[in-house]
Design brief:
Number of helices: 2
Oligomer: single chain
Strand content: under 5%
Radius of gyration: 20 Å
Structural class: mainly alpha
Helix content: 55-70%
Length: 52
């Protein structure tokens, strides 16, 4: 069984920064999408999504 070298400290930090950047980008895109008039959630769209 080969020995797997653990990540160095720099690569752990880099992965955390990249992961945080991706999360921030997804949240910003979602927030901007919510601000568009066609994407605002109201009771009619919630009822439609639930099948009522």
């Amino acid at each position: 069984m080969p020995h797997i070298k653990p990540h160095s400290g720099f690569s752990k930090i880099l992965l955390k920064v990249l992961g945080g950047g991706v999360l921030l980008a997804v949240l910003v895109i979602g927030f901007l999408g919510y601000l568009t008039p066609g994407m605002r959630i109201n009771w009619e769209t919630v009822a439609t999504m639930c099948g009522f």
